[in-house]
Amino acid sequence: GFVRRLFAQQEGHWPTDPRALEELAASRIGATAAAYVAGSAGAGATEAANRAALDRWRLVPRILTGSTVRSLAVDLLGTRMPAPVLAAPVGVQGIVHPDGERATARACAELGVPMVTSTMSSTPIEEVAAASGDGPRWFQLYWPNSDEIARSFLSRARATGHTVLVVTVDTMSLGWRPPILDQSFLPMLDGVGTAMFTSDPVFRAGLSATPEEDPRQAVEAWDRELGTAGRTWDDLARLREWWSGPLLVKGVLHPEDARRVVDTGLDGIIVSNHGGRQVDGSVAALDALVSVSREIGDDVPLLFDSGIRNGADVIKALALGARAVLVGRPYVHGLGVGGAAGVRHVLEALLADLDVTLGLLGLHDVGQVGPDLVVPAP
Ligand code: FNR
User: Fold this and answer.
1) Domain containing 108: what range?
2) What is the rounded distance in angstroms from the CA atom of residue 246 to the CA atom of residue 126?
3) Is residue 370 assigned to a domain?
């Protein structure tokens, strides 16, 4: 039934090719939002390296295995997923579409794909969770300076059914992103992406006027909370004590850091360079996955993002040690062209492509993907 599924996705006649969808989204959402979504650091060298690294590996299909029936489903950290794919945390989705994170939550829930809601959400986590119904949900923490606010976020995440906590550690300050700077747009200056804070009782208690009365004061307080460059490994150990469920670190690239994350008692690692938005010229995420996987083996699950665009990319990441991948910009482009239906279009196409590619490789189950499936390009 995959052909039928592929055609069924053509609702709205949106492109299936991620680059074509990006172009369509850029033409619809306006220059500022398009720059925000594209916004790589520096000259874009890391973003390009992410793609080049994926393209340097080649898949070796096997034939005549009768792989008519395939299973993509996986269990990871207590989360049942229809495929080893999650929606990456992306902040400030409200500038891409008025429904923002709520649309993404609806689309993810319809498919059963876990959504990782960002601290920079343009909508309070309670509303995103409500839109996600009984869909699987994880929360991504950008660590405020104030421990009290951080702990308030964690209890809100717990109360709204977020089972896994992801702490992003590669964004202790925003990267130097010329496309965004040249639009004179920074979320902290414009007061978008502050909803988690302005809806937080602890944050509000620290203001002399409510954010509704004095938005400027709220944005300035928010900006002070997010300059978290002082965080260290000791803080990570404390966070471990605060959150009893599965806790992952996102933004690991060095194998020694990966080892230390495991030694700190965390439950998993997301190998990621933030889609090339932080350190320009940094190691390609897939190359880092290879070295981190060599160091960590099966000690904790490894997840991967930065550059995933199609089913073959997902399989390459799994073959090189990832248990699941996150996808960022593509679903945001879907959000821009069609709200929840657009997000669903992108995720469904990715899962269908993954299914087709798995079958063409001669496999029945995504769990069969192993290192023998890939070779370096000559
Ligand atoms: C991000 N990313 C991100 N990560 C995070 O931990 N918290 C966040 O709030 C955001 N915000 C964000 C906004 C936008 C517009 C983008 C494109 C990305 C990074 C994201 O989670 C992921 O690491 C990358 O997007 C993965 O790369 P691809 O799939 O976009 O190539």
Assistant:
1) 2-363
2) 20
3) no
Distance 332 CA to ligand 1 centre (A): 10
> Residue 320 sits in a domain of what CATH number?
3.20.20.70
Ligand 1 site, residue 329, Cβ cutoff 6 A = yes
> In sequence order, what DSSP letters do the residues of 323-367 get, joined into one string?
SEEEE-HHHHHHHHHHHHHHHHHHHHHHHHHHHHHHHHTT-SBGG
The answer as to whether 368 is a domain residue is no
Query: With a 6 A CB cut-off, is 118 part of the ligand 1 pocket?
Result: yes
CA of 173 relative to ligand 1 center, distance in Å: 14
| Amino acid at the residue 60 | V
Q: Of 90, 88, 84, which is closest to residue 321 (Cα–Cα)?
A: 84
Distances (CA, A) of 358 to 5, 114, 286, 377: 16, 21, 20, 20
CB of 94 within 6 A of ligand 1: the answer is no
**How does pLDDT run along the chain (378 residues), one tens digit per residue?**
455 555 555 556 899 999 999 999 999 999 989 999 999 999 999 999 999 999 999 999 999 999 888 999 999 999 999 999 999 999 999 999 999 999 999 999 999 999 999 999 999 999 999 999 999 999 999 999 999 999 999 999 999 999 999 999 998 888 898 888 888 766 555 667 899 999 999 999 999 999 999 988 998 898 888 876 789 999 999 999 999 999 999 999 999 999 999 999 999 999 999 999 999 999 999 999 999 999 999 999 999 999 999 999 999 999 999 999 999 999 999 999 999 999 999 999 999 999 999 999 999 999 999 999 999 999
Sequential DSSP letters for 272-326 = --GGGTSSTTPPPHHHHHHHHHHHHTTSS-EEE-SS--SHHHHHHHHHTT-SEEE
- Which amino acid is residue 300, in one-letter code? V
- The Cβ of residue 356 has, within 10 Å, a number of other Cβ atoms equal to 16
Total of domains in the chain:
1
Cα–Cα distance for residue pair 110/306, rounded to 1 Å: 24
Residue 239 lies inside a defined structural domain of this protein: yes
Please report whether residue 9 resides in a domain: yes
Is 274 noted as a catalytic residue in this protein? yes
- Candidates 97, 274, 333, 345; catalytic one: 274
